[in-house]
Structure prediction request, 312 residues.
Amino acid sequence: MKSVIMALFLMSVSLGNFFTAAVNHNIVMPDAIAPALELAARFEGESTEGREKLASDAMMKYTERDGGGFSLVLQGASSEDASDDVQVLFDADGKKESLVLAETVVLEQALDLIATHWNEKDRLPLTADGNVLFSQLKDPWGNTLRYQLISRQNFNISSDGADRQQHSEFDAWFEVSVSSQSVESQQAQARQQEAQGPNARTEYTWLDKRQAEIGLEKALSASNEGDDLPVYEDFLPLREPIVAADIAPQPFSSEVRTHVGGATTLQGAPYFWFFTQLMLGTAIAFMLVAYLYRPKEYIQGDDPQPEKPAAE
Prediction:
């Protein structure tokens, strides 16, 4: 009996894991530039004519760049209008350098608005406030830009693209990580250092370590043989001791990654609210079942005994 109960428990845990994996898989949009990266990985040893043929077969355009690099142009949402095409620039070693997009200018303007807000209020705007800031900004197709606050140090700026649909593979967006620290954050770290003692080493959070692991995995998968391979410590954030007397507002500074597609439909607070509401709904369902279910007790020995035949 104990084995059956344990099997049911493990089965429920496995079903929960499968459900979470299915959700995480389905909320990720296709990455528009992934085919270009895969094609560039096949260019090693190919001549210019060979590269052009491979690109043509993949419905892309190959162009040589000065300095030994090259570019690949991918078709956008419209097959007739080339203004939404995506140009991926690669260096001489075949590593992606940058993207050339029609939305880049307006996305940079939106980033400047966020920087101004930070410099004035020493924090990132909330999602609703950021969208108000962007109300006058339009992408080349007349779409209003979107802002989403992920955490106090991270946010996204996105355009719906030429197809005018949110969360599609043609969405151009900036993934921004703010390296500046607010006065409140600096004060909190100073209090933590004081509590740990003068000789205590600042510990990295689980998120810092996990992000470093992911960054290392991506760097190793993209590295060519003979390159100086990165190490785990290269991807950990720099942690300098904070002196209380030096705490002051820091000007906006950030690291920006440009993407086309590849976003997730649930990020930040909405992701956690989804599972919170799911667990709440499941709990209510169990309460209804427990309320409506009427248990029946069966005690061994209470069953009626068959009558014995009368003796002749």
